Amino acid sequence: MDRPIILKTTHEGKTKEYFVMPEGEKHTDLGIIKLDVLKEMQPGDTISSHTGVDFTIQKPRSPDFFRHAKRTGAPMMPKDIGVIISNTGLCSTDSVLDAGTGSGILAIYLGAIAKKVVSYEIREEFVAIAGKNIALAGLSNVEIRHGDIVEEIRKLDNKFDVITLDTMHSAQVVPSVPDVIYPGGFLAVYSPFFEQTKEVRQAIDQTDYTEVKTLETMEREISFSERGTRPSTARVGHTGFITLARY
Ligand SMILES: C[S@@+](CC[C@H](N)C(=O)[O-])C[C@H]1O[C@@H](n2cnc3c(N)ncnc32)[C@H](O)[C@@H]1O
Known about the structure:
Elements (H helix, E strand, L loop, with lengths): L4 E7 L2 E7 L4 E4 L2 E4 L11 E3 L5 E5 L3 H7 L9 H11 L6 E5 L5 H7 L4 E6 L2 H13 L5 E5 L2 H4 L7 E6 L4 H4 L7 E11 L2 H12 L4 E6 L6 E3 L4 E3 L9 E6 L1
Parallel strand pairs: 7-8, 7-10, 8-9, 10-11
Antiparallel strand pairs: 1-2, 1-6, 3-4, 5-6, 11-15, 12-15, 13-14
The structure holds S-adenosylmethionine.
């Protein structure tokens, strides 16, 4: 399968980028770009539009999929994904169980680091879209399965180093986690609301987890302008709480 490519240029002080497949043409306000030739080109090469604007070719990385991949709902934000990766110590020998897959954005970040990711999604139409996103990311180590994680986790007979949950049913999954997690492994649950977070914490409290904590991460971008330097006035507000627990 052909992989997507990022075409980037800076025009009149502004950076513009396009996420394209290497086929057909891309019509932009900076001219038409013939995309077939991209198959023979390398990251760092440049391609010109018919009006003579040069675009640099880049290979997409996980944040590019966050920005450009087809979405079925709200994907997890990179700031929250970072909290999961840093607090679980996710590494290249890890097997990860993930649910729900959604657009597959978290699964893409996890798959770029871990050895294997198995991700469950309850809605069949979302499985197909996430599957396409993951194939475009070139990740053959991410397997998406259709099913309800509350039921499916009870049928698993292998174990995982890290388990990530981003579904409204996470609290119902927590009691089954000890059966499928390696000793010392981490559970990370993302919940948008206090109420869901409390249900997850209550479920965790009924099991022998250690190192339990719930975090909310604030991200402030700094804006630089002629007038001065300060935190940006447009900022990302609340996204979700991340509850971590070790078994
Ligand atoms: C917020 S989205 C997940 C976003 C995903 N983490 C990402 O970064 O793209 C939640 C997903 O969980 C799925 N879901 C809800 N309940 C589920 C369940 N019991 N088992 C599996 N998936 C479930 C929903 O269909 C939805 O696609």
